[in-house]
Batch of 4 targets.
Target 1
Amino acid sequence: MGARRVTLADVAKVVGVSQTTVSLVLSGRGRDLRISEEMQRRVREAATELEYRRNRVSTARLGARTRTVAFVSDSVASSRLAGHMIKGALGAARRHGVTLLFGETEGDAGFQRTLIGTMRDYQVDGFILASAHTRTITTPSELATGPAVLLNLLPREPSPLISVLPDELQAGRAAARVLLDAGHREGIHLIGVGPSGGDVPPGRTTASDRLAGIHQELAEVGVEVESGRPCRWWLPECGFEATADLLGKARPRALICLDDRLALGAYQALQDAGLTVPDDVSVVSFDDHPIASWLRPALTTVALPHHDLGAKAVDLLFADTGQPGSDHARRGRTHRVPMPVRHRNSVAPPR
């Protein structure tokens, strides 16, 4: 006879709370009902240690398709930009005639295991594991064989799972092309990364690809970046400090900022120096953060395609046949989604 199944009552007894509290926390409703973060953490840890699993589907249905897909993320829902990935995934799920079940871990590895286990108890047909920012991970063992798609995530080790990512290399080329098309051939400087990369926000994998694309596009016409100012954090104050430092040593004709928030700081430093955008200095950036369209002049930027990323993840999960993971030829590779340029008013021909 197998081991006795762990129940809600078992978890509640260990933590010293009611079964209702445990149920609310493990169903993701703890915050909405104002259960403290500390209590939620204790419940999740106890559930993980006891290997508690919720059985939402009767054993009679095991193996049957439920027309459901699990979307498990770190902080996508709480991110104003990345939240559009959920909208894209929801739209694609409706096209495929399936229901999207969503859960957020806030980066808690233990809760991620619990959440994936809970979703499996619903007998979901497949998983999308997502991140608000592109980064590398060790693929969770619970998802190692699929059917699953990694969204904005790259596995550190060989994996049969497909990854869906923004095409940051192409984005770097597109940003450089904006300046080239405007006639810029000299005085181009980087804000947010050194000319050879490095010293960027920890956990980010975007900087190296954006930088490579910039260098490739410029090199094809014999143009070089004159300098780069690394920023450990991509925040307005860092962009301001980096641009002010640059202006103390050189007079740029154009800036490529690695993030729109850096560009906001760059605008302020240029204004303080009595320079105008784009008459004196052209500026191009990345992400299409809401601040990009509110800056004056409005900022030309290469947009992160959050909606398309979410939709593509669901589409690839179902492949061409409507069965998630059935197209094995598509698994174990990276699918890159194009990043469109949002042309606004921050770039002009050099004077």
Target 2
Amino acid sequence: MRLTDSSEFEKVYRQGTAYRGKLFSVHAFPNELGTLRLGLSVSKKVGNAVVRNTLRRRLREIFASLSPEAGSALDLVVSARPPAREATFVELREEFSKALAKLKVRDHAVGE
């Protein structure tokens, strides 16, 4: 359920639809695998390794809790912004949920 190859990230960035929020941006692109996959991009601008890894763990947990209700065959790439380092878990979850709604992940309408 993860994107790992840089070419997969590039494909989502170039051909996908984007939601740009205060804490992070989410890019989405349909895949042929029939499953929802996540890729994370957390640069050094966000903070040191401890901060970046904590943020990655939080985003993966949020993704895992929201993905069963999404049910789409999509690749999602989340690019964290520096304000995300001070955001609470609830704030991250709210913005992630808002991003999925804006991208119409639940309606399978991304890329149409």
Target 3
Amino acid sequence: MQHRIIVLGAGYTGASAAGRLAKRLRREDVAITLVNAEPDFVERVRNHQLATGQDLRPRPLSEIYAGTGVELRLAKVTGVDVDRKTVAITGANGAEELKYDTLVYALGSGWNSQAVPGTAEHAYQIAGRTGALGLRERLASLDAGQTVVVVGGGLTGLEASTEIAEARPDLDVALAAGGGLGDRLSPKGREHVRKVFGKLGITAYEHTAITAVEADHVTTADGRIIPAAVTVWTAGFAIHPLAKATFLEVSGTGQIVVDRTMRSVSHPDVYAVGDAAMAMGAGDKPLRMSCASGIPTAWLAADVIAARLTGRKVPDKTIGYFNQCISLGRKEGLIQYVTADDRAKPMVLRGRLAAAYKELICKSAAWSVANPTLGMPTRHHRVTRQQTLKQETV
């Protein structure tokens, strides 16, 4: 009997995990099912480009997984019963229930309104493709001189504000950051961000908390009114609510708590990867929500599952960082080198070379997802019945 592996979500992490599992295990021994609501793989790290009118290459999941042995189910996940080991989905065939022996939870995150009044009604977001397309339509309708305010001083906010300002130099673009501009970067990194903001004419409201969003302005904590024909909200991410609705142990952020092998600490037949996981990295610090964290966690989970099913040594790996890659429009970029536990080092790469580096990283990540059977030596190991039974009864 085949060991049933279900992967929920086909973003960078879920797509990577499904492809890597297909390369590690024999088709005769496992049935790998990938469930995703959209038919295409979405390059989330390029949503700010999509929002400014750039067209991205379509990557149909049906083409990506053709011939790999991965069964694609286009459906929305509506529930997970970790005691019965079932997943409820709704797709073209209506409501269905899928049974699993091993579950890989990769439903990721969406935008986080931070419960700020008016955000849900008036702000735009780029955490998902639908949100990015909605912002794209709204930006295209703006007349010259109108104001766009990006809220959130993290990497997404920096990328969104510079992309919009470069694509629409006729608009008045501003960024409202809760801290200093680029305050998690090194001094050289912060200096370069300020230089690019100056060149693009972006106004930076530093140490500014937004407490309300209206259709034509935002309000700050100290009562200031900042005009905003469009407000783009990038102030953090919220975990998909489904995780909290299960009996899985979750953190205060709603992330599934996992051990060093990405395995749920409460349900050993469930693995969580990417933004959905509360995983510890180098220095025993939680991994931040990012593609830089997500893909390594997906690779690790896939290798661990394959090892446990085939009776091989389980990988012992600590995930760490090397750099932060930031696009500042199409012509400028910043590569901030960091320690393994994500603290900024003095060294940076700036300018066009950094922009090219970031573009290469984005293309490489998309290529690895779009070519699941290429790039890594294929080693289809046999699943032993003994290991399957052990996995099912732990």
Target 4
Amino acid sequence: MAESELHVSGIGISKDVVSTIVSIAARRAEGVASVGGNDIASSLISVFTSRSVAPEKAVESFVEDDQLHVTVHLAVFYGYPFTKLAADVRAEVARAVTEQIGVGVSAVDVCIDSLVFPKE
């Protein structure tokens, strides 16, 4: 059974709260179609692809040396270089976690799980 709360810097934070903050931040990065299975776009994507990530697995987080270590699963639009997109997602997520929660981020692992092709 996974623990639903993280304890970092003297506070308890629901993993769902962390997931919401991370998801909103990751969507700000240009080229991100959706985060895991958290929105309508990913539901449509799952109709056309064989893969989809369960919403509760879209963002995973744990405490590491009193900082958060985050993994985010994405569907991305074709045509955006993965390395730049991942760097942008890392920057957005780290900034949002630091600003909103007030704790540092030890790492942001970006998993590109599916590719979305725009209509021509």
